[in-house]
């Protein structure tokens, strides 16, 4: 099991200290927070991996940090509250600075390892799949019209597996999946999650179409989008500090499929919150895993903080809600068609 990264925060302002600590905890870090006074009394802990220091430039307590072997990040913009619309961007900038300071992507490395994938592959199916409603015609292999974006990080693969295993075979829906992950594990993830699922999982490649009964997993190293219903693999990394960027994946998918819904599962950080905020007035459906069933509730909680989430529940409940939503959409479509035919 990966040991949590130990970081120390030193700040004069108590609110700034609290918000920095909270954000770092959302990244899965063990955090020590110190005021200037407590630092003066306790001294420097040489066992931490890095220091985040927000003190006045003329403070004498800065001097010891200049000669430390451990990496030190100095000076921070004022941290907004989690309810502030500026918070997701602020947290992303903070994560980018830490990633640059440490020279590694702590979210992707923490979210999934070879050991964790092997453990997931041994998981038995938790329950029987839901039945396909009588009024929903089974459809698999044709181009998907009901499209949903899945986003997750730490604890996400286990939750997504339970969700997919619960869905009925033939449900007319296709998924695009963004999981914080090292790119070497993306194809393994597809095999592991597809073990009991009625859905076919594939790593997204250029030219692919998203069909009913399929889950396209976004690569971690290169951004993808959709043009004329086909996957386009862009020759550039995902923007921002996360790989893949769930925010960007949501926006790119929504540009091609304007009615695409969003499903946010367990994960560290707040990836996805910025995109659902941008799309808040578009009337899209956003489901988020509840805190109690999440290994890390930071990602789904961040989306809930935006006010955009229309349903919260455990993975099985999310599957049930999705089936109901697709049934409602189909019934509405049939009702509209019947009304139009009657008017002719």
TrEMBL record:
Pfam families in UniProt: CheB_methylest
Reaction(s) catalysed by this chain's protein: [protein]-L-glutamate 5-O-methyl ester + H2O = L-glutamyl-[protein] + methanol + H(+)
Domain CheB-type methylesterase: residue ranges: 138-329
Active site: 153, 180, 271
EC number per UniProt: 3.1.1.61
Keyword field: Chemotaxis, Hydrolase
Molecular function via GO: phosphorelay response regulator activity; protein-glutamate methylesterase activity
EC top class named in words: hydrolase
PANTHER family registered for this protein in UniProt: PROTEIN-GLUTAMATE METHYLESTERASE/PROTEIN-GLUTAMINE GLUTAMINASE (PTHR42872), PROTEIN-GLUTAMATE METHYLESTERASE_PROTEIN-GLUTAMINE GLUTAMINASE (PTHR42872:SF6)
Protein name as annotated: protein-glutamate methylesterase
Source organism of this protein record: Bermanella marisrubri
